[in-house]
Specification:
By secondary structure, this protein is mainly alpha-helical. It folds into 2 domains: 204 residues, no CATH class; 54 residues, no CATH class. It is 65% helix and 5% strand. It has 13 helices and 4 strands. Strands 2-3-1-4 form a 4-stranded antiparallel beta sheet. The longest helix is centred in the first third of the chain and has 23 residues. The chain is globular and about 70 Å long. It is a multi-pass membrane protein. Pfam families: FIT. One of its GO terms (biological process) is phospholipid biosynthetic process. Keywords: Endoplasmic reticulum, Hydrolase, Lipid biosynthesis, Lipid metabolism, Membrane, Phospholipid biosynthesis, Phospholipid metabolism, Transmembrane, Transmembrane helix. It comes from Ambrosiozyma monospora.
Length: 310
């Protein structure tokens, strides 16, 4: 009888997964980040591609949906004030971490976390708010041929920066009254343009929404897993569910809110991350071109990679 050879066979899928895992480890090592940070960053290209596919196969969605309007409640009260909400949730989360006796590496982790937040806040400010005048995203728009058009004479401010329009731009002609004078400028920011009821037109406009939403989500998720692993996080969420049921059963609404904000801000963090990802998907469907969304993501990646080195 021939000897029995014990050969362990690996399922083809397991082999492919092992190869993917090795590739991810290799990429993370080259970028000097850990695999979790890499996986979080890889979610955004998937969302952008999904948004583009929805835009291609369901064009009606891009013109007949509540989220097509920039005045939808989530955009006006959350995304437009995105860094405020990120800062508030981060502050509550950090405060709860300092009070949580189950958290290890607390002192080193908190200091590092605050440094990272200071860095990415600076990056957000320079990219979307101010950078020696116009923010970086507006400078890119202007350098690629963009200007603020369609500013009426009565709305005009700092007139030395404006020139009279001659109405040669067909896309803008329908928005203007030929009996009035309208002006354009390549020296003001998008925020100033909006305040004068002008129209940002003509250049490559990196998506500030994609930048903010992906940067904020990356930061919040990486800091969440800096202090909690999957096991401790599940325990925390289970305890929150038990406490919430008890509070609501006894109609203890104030204690419930106090518990939510002081003891379980990780729930608020996860809710905000979920909202940011949803709004990121909608942004990629309804606003900006693919290249403009990828440009916003690129600058978000730069800021995140800088923060990972702290």
């Amino acid at each position: 009888m021939p000897p029995v050879t014990n050969i362990t066979q690996t399922h083809p899928i397991a082999g492919h997964l092992d190869m993917v895992n090795k590739r991810l480890n290799d990429i993370a090592r080259r970028l000097k980040i850990n695999k979790l940070e890499l996986l979080i960053m890889l979610t955004y290209p998937v969302i952008i591609i999904l948004g583009q596919l929805i835009w291609l196969v369901a064009p009606a969605e891009s013109s007949m949906n509540y989220f097509t309007s920039k005045k939808n409640i989530f955009n006006v009260y959350f995304v437009k004030q995105g860094w405020f909400w990120t800062t508030m949730v981060f502050g509550l989360f950090l405060f709860s971490v300092m009070r949580d006796s189950t958290v290890v590496r607390k002192q080193h982790g908190v200091i590092s976390c605050v440094k990272k937040f200071a860095l990415i806040t600076t990056c957000w400010f320079f990219f979307s708010q101010w950078f020696l005048g116009m923010p970086i995203m507006d400078r890119i728009f202007v350098l690629t041929g963009g200007s603020c058009y369609n500013v009426s004479a009565e709305k005009l401010k700092n007139s030395e920066y404006f020139k009279l329009m001659d109405f040669t731009i067909e896309d803008l002609a329908e928005f203007t009254n030929q009996d009035n004078d309208y002006y354009y400028s390549s020296s003001i920011s998008s925020r100033q343009c909006k305040s004068m009821r002008g129209r940002w037109y003509g250049g490559h406009d990196p998506s500030g929404h994609v930048f903010l939403l992906s940067l904020s989500t990356t930061f919040l998720m990486t800091q969440l897993f800096e202090f909690y692993n999957s096991i401790t996080l599940r325990k925390k969420l289970r305890q929150f569910k038990i406490d919430t049921e008890n509070h609501l059963k006894n109609r203890e609404f104030v204690p419930f809110l106090k518990s939510l904000f002081l003891d379980y801000p990780i729930v608020l963090l996860l809710m905000l991350v979920g909202l940011w990802l949803w709004m990121l998907l909608n942004t990629t469907i309804y606003f900006h071109s693919l290249l403009e969304n990828l440009a916003g993501l690129f600058f978000s990646y730069l800021a995140s990679l800088l923060s990972f080195q702290i």
